[in-house]
Amino acid sequence: MFQRYLLPLFFCLVTTGSLCAKKGESVSFAIVIPSYNNEQWCIGNLESCVKQDYSDFTIYYIDDCSTDQTGPLVKAYIKTNHLEKKCIVIHNNERRGALANLDSTIRMIDPKKVVVTVDGDDKLSNPYVLKKLASIYKDGSIWMTYGNFISEPKKYPSPCRPIPESIAQNNAFRSFPWVCSQLRTFYAGLFHKIKSEDLKVEGQYFPVSGDVAFSFPLLEMASKGHFRFIPDILYIYNVSNPINDFRERRELQIRYNKLIRSRRPYLPLETLLAVS
Length: 276
What we know:
alpha/beta; Spore Coat Polysaccharide Biosynthesis Protein SpsA, Chain A; 3-stranded mixed β-sheet
């Protein structure tokens, strides 16, 4: 299905026990970047990640069979900057879509790592994003975070805001307005508990609204005090890309959003444990 180069991906041995960082323990991040035809933005995107003032992270860059120069530009940037040990690049031989790429890649990541999702045309807002996230995850009780962003070059208002406690207590996220936008982060082990079929419609991964499809299960499983809204601006959303879903496939987004909301919610988890 796809070819890997620069570094091989290995399935991790999973042990039983808590996945969460203990207080004082280093938090390890996996930045996952699905990307298609982003030659204008791929270098700025990568630079915002590799220049983080935090050392414990790996980048997984998925070039989704781009037809422009995205692949060669990324490969050259990594080679020129000697980032072969920091960046894993996956080059698809056929286009799969963002959600399919996220699902297959995240399931190969150590469940104890915290996943940070960044679209291939967007950026982290500053060099201290991972340091900020690490300070939150070191608490030991947080399994996922979401929000907040700014858009460029045109400024759109961010919908991100805290989810009321009553919504979390009643596991009623699917009936609440959408507020769970970028920057999204979560333990890979939490994502592993999502059934792949719940990320699909008619046997195929959702071509749009993929973030909605996986965010609801994450929120629901983490609903007993294990998720947090971060009001700080940690993400820059590029709204100039002509193939953005909100511009090209808005009606499809609305239809699939309704479908995802109609599905049965996941049950809250008491603890986040590794599985064999």
